[in-house]
């Protein structure tokens, strides 16, 4: 589904190479995890895939179901089924969460040539999904992410993902800043979306989240490269020994 | 002190083009106002208070031509249950207006009010008072020469808004209107104003809000490109009274909105807000002067300006806290969103405080659209144009939310969205 080949990226503003040849394939129905020390390039990878400005791809490719992602506008990548749950969700003062969700859902439907969701249907679906993430009506009314706690922001990301039903979901440190209960809510939200047509790339610094979202494959990223790939046991190894050994081995 | 020759010449040229209306009860006030105009002279380019806005076309003997634009939108406030009063190029249109009776208030026209009239004690009074410490000669000119206006006396809580609709039909119309609103103790009223009014409009509204009374004002200054306007609001607030005004300005080659508010009774609240959207040949100036002269009062100024293609926004805002006005809570923010590098925002925020137990803050910013916000929205599938519009509406939201009535908020937002839609691409 998501196929990344020898992806090399540097910053647009300075001559600094951040990704130094990333190879990664996520198949439909699978959950891949990327772990790695801070600064290894995990967020950069997620941003480059979703189309953020400020990076220059110097080599390599990234495709979603065979379509070149790197040439597309961010909104077209979203419409093609790519979703990024941000490590730092952005606050948008003045735009109601509900308005935002409805505008996003309908923009994507329109881009795919589908009919817009009626407001009654939308309300029904959003209420249902919000309830399972313990997001109350008040939070839906408030401006997007404004005044939300860290945990609320992350749950809000998962709500957006649930509403947009993307086929390829990238979660960037969605577990950071969450207590155990919130983490379970988020994990349940993700697990509810797991199915054979959908791929996940779960970026995390810690193994904790992977207790709840069981990965099929675990990659270790260090200094702009995937340095090791293995099964779920690799995450446990990190938990016990830290990154030092793995990174040195590489 | 004698006026500079150029100022005197310009002032006399303007005065020569006008004639004092038959005054009746307002005659003495008009004569005094004319004296004030002669003493002050009309604004010139060298005046400090007109540093950022050129007054010449507002002062000229003749109004510059302004093309009349047929408005293709559903008229504003159409969905609101209201009492409508229509002026066409400043001339009252009885046919198009509702009957001027409504429970809780009386409405008379300045042009035909009976000789013994309550407004005698107010007409020109607040304007005169507002001439210090800063001179506002265009307002004095207005008091002297206003051809019409409404005298609204509010004695109770008025169930529906009064809507003044200003139509523009003649591309050379030069209009001077003067309203007086007296909200008596316990009274509460909402006043809506909309429309371009004239090729050139000089409008004054004096608002006296008594103890415990409330005045709510929402104004939309019309979509026309060529029109010019200089408006003044002079308000005096009694104990525990509320005064809230919001103005939306889209288009208009030149707009200067002065708002002069004096909080004279304890625990009074004044909110002055405005949003403007300007494209190209657009100059918009909000000049606000708030005087706190009582204890425990609150004032809020929230101004947002969206500018593109060389539009210019100006904000001059002052909070003056007089000795003894303790526990004053004064807030002022003015911000601009510059959608390109050609547009300009000029701000002069001022605080002058003579009491020690006060909390006053002011801030002014100018910036481009938030790139992080834009990427976040696009990453959720919103096309760039829609994402930018949403962020623009979000930018002015703090000002729009100063309107208490949520239906009116929604109506204002819809107008802004339509404006953005017309401009895109
Ligand atoms: N916009 C940027 N400007 C400067 N440095 C950046 C920028 N984006 C990423 N970097 C640098 O690139 C490296 C990788 O960062 P990041 O992708 O955020 O790592 P991770 O998510 O794995 O912690 C870090 O050294 C970081 O400082
Ligand atoms: Mg990161």
Topology:
The complex is a heterodimer of chains A (250) and B (425).
Chain A lengths: L1 E10 L5 E10 L4 E5 L6 H9 L4 E10 L2 E2 L5 H6 L2 E4 L6 E5 H15 L7 H14 L4 H5 L1 E2 L5 H15 L3 E5 L7 H14 L5 E6 L3 H5 L4 E6 L2 E6 L2 H9 L2 H6 L1
Parallel strand pairs in A: 3-10, 3-11, 6-9, 9-10
Antiparallel strand pairs in A: 1-2, 1-4, 4-5, 7-8, 11-12
Chain B lengths: L4 H12 L10 H14 L15 H4 L23 E6 L2 E2 L8 E2 L2 E5 L15 H5 L7 H9 L4 E5 L7 E6 L6 E10 L4 E7 L5 E10 L4 E7 L7 E10 L4 E9 L3 E10 L5 E11 L3 E10 L5 E11 L3 E10 L7 E10 L5 E10 L5 E9 L3 H9 L4 H17 L5 H18 L2
Parallel strand pairs in B: 1-6, 5-7, 6-8, 7-9, 8-10, 9-11, 10-12, 11-13, 12-14, 13-15, 14-16, 15-17, 16-18, 17-19, 18-20
Antiparallel strand pairs in B: 1-2, 3-4, 4-5
Bound molecules: adenosine-5'-diphosphate and magnesium ion.
Keywords (chain A): ATP-binding, Nucleotide-binding
Pfam family, one (chain A): ABC_tran
Organism (chain A): Salipiger marinus
Structure notes:
The complex is a heterodimer of chains A (250) and B (425). Chain A is an alpha/beta fold and 250 residues long. Chain A has a domain at 1-89 and 165-246: Rossmann fold (3-Layer(aba) Sandwich). Helix content of chain A is 39%, strand content 28%. The longest helix of chain A has 15 residues, at 97-111. Chain B has one domain (5-369). In chain B, strand 1 (83-88) and strand 2 (91-92) form a beta hairpin. Helix content of chain B is 21%, strand content 38%. In chain B, helix 2 (27-40) runs antiparallel to helix 5, helix 6 crosses helix 7 (384-400) and helix 7 (384-400) runs antiparallel to helix 8. Chain B has helices at residues 5-16, 27-40, 56-59, 125-129, 137-145, 371-379, 384-400, 406-423, and strands at 83-88, 91-92, 101-102, 105-109, 150-154, 162-167, 174-183, 188-194, 200-209, 214-220, 228-237, 242-250, 254-263, 269-279, 283-292, 298-308, 312-321, 329-338, 344-353, 359-367. Chain B is of the alpha/beta class. Classes of the chains: A alpha/beta (250), B alpha/beta (425). The A-B interface holds A 50-53, 73-75, 77-79, 84, 86, 89-95, 99-100, 103-104, 107-108, 111, 143, 160, 164 and B 371-373, 375-384, 386-387, 390-391, 393-398. The complex binds adenosine-5'-diphosphate and magnesium ion. Magnesium ion (MG) is lined by residues 42-43, 87, 172-173 of chain A.
């Amino acid at each position: 589904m998501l196929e990344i080949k020898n992806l090399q990226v540097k910053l647009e503003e300075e001559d600094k190479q951040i990704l130094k040849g990333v190879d990664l394939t996520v198949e439909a129905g699978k959950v891949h995890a990327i772990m790695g020390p801070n600064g290894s390039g995990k967020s950069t990878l997620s941003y480059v895939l979703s189309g953020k400005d400020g990076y220059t791809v110097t080599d390599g490719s990234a495709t979603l179901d065979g379509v070149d992602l790197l040439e597309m506008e961010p909104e077209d990548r979203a419409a093609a089924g790519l979703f990024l749950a941000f490590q730092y969700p952005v606050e948008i003062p003045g735009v109601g969460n509900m308005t935002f969700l409805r505008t996003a859902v309908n923009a994507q439907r329109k881009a795919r040539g589908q009919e817009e969701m009626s407001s009654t249907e939308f309300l029904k679906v959003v209420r249902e999904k919000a309830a399972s993430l313990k997001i109350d009506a008040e939070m839906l009314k408030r401006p997007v992410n404004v005044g939300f706690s860290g945990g609320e922001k992350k749950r809000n990301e998962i709500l957006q993902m649930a509403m947009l039903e993307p086929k390829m979901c990238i979660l960037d440190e969605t577990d950071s800043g969450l207590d155990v209960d919130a983490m379970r809510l988020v994990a349940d939200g993700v697990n509810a979306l797991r199915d054979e047509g959908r791929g996940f790339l779960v970026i995390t610094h810690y193994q904790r989240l992977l207790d709840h979202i069981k990965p099929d494959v675990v990659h270790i990223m260090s200094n702009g490269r995937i340095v090791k790939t293995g099964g779920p046991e690799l995450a446990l190894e990190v938990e016990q020994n830290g990154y030092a050994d793995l990174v040195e081995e590489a | 002190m004698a006026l500079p020759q150029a100022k005197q010449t310009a002032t006399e040229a303007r005065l020569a083009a006008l004639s004092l209306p038959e005054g009746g009860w307002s005659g003495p006030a008009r004569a005094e106002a004319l004296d004030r105009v002669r003493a002050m002279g009309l604004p010139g380019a060298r005046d400090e208070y007109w540093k950022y806005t050129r007054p010449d076309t507002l002062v000229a003997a003749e109004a510059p031509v302004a093309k009349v634009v047929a408005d293709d939108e559903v008229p504003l406030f159409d969905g609101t249950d209201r009492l409508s009063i229509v002026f066409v190029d400043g001339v009252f249109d009885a046919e198009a207006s509702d009957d001027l009776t409504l429970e809780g208030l009386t409405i008379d026209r300045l042009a035909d009010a009976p000789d013994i009239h309550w407004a005698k004690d107010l007409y020109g009074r607040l304007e005169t008072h507002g001439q210090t410490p800063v001179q506002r000669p265009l307002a004095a000119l207005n008091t002297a020469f206003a051809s019409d206006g409404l005298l609204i006396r509010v004695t109770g809580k008025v169930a529906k808004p009064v809507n003044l609709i200003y139509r523009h039909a003649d591309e050379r119309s030069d209009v001077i209107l003067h309203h007086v609103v007296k909200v008596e103790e316990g009274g509460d009223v909402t006043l809506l104003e909309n429309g371009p009014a004239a090729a050139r409009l000089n409008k004054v509204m004096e608002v006296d809000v008594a103890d415990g009374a409330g005045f709510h004002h929402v104004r939309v200054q019309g979509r026309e490109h060529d029109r010019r306007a200089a408006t003044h609001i002079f308000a005096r607030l009694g104990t525990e009274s509320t005064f809230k005004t919001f103005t939306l300005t889209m288009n208009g080659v030149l707009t200067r909105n002065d708002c002069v508010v004096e909080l004279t009774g304890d625990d009074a609240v004044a909110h002055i807000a405005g949003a403007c959207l300007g494209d190209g040949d657009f100059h918009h100036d909000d000049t606000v002067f708030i005087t706190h002269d009582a204890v425990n009062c609150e004032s809020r100024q929230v101004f947002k300006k969206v500018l593109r293609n060389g539009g210019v926004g100006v904000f001059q805002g002052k909070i003056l806290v007089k000795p003894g006005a303790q526990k004053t809570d004064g807030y002022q923010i003015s911000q601009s969103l510059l959608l390109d590098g050609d547009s300009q925002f000029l701000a002069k925020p001022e605080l002058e405080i003579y009491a020690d137990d006060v909390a006053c803050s002011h801030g002014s910013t100018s910036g481009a659209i938030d790139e992080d916000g834009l990427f976040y929205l696009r990453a959720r599938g919103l096309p760039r144009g829609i994402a930018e519009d949403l962020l623009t509406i979000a930018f002015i939201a703090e000002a729009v939310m100063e309107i208490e009535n949520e239906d009116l908020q929604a109506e204002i937002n819809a107008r802004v969205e339509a404006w953005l839609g017309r401009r895109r691409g």
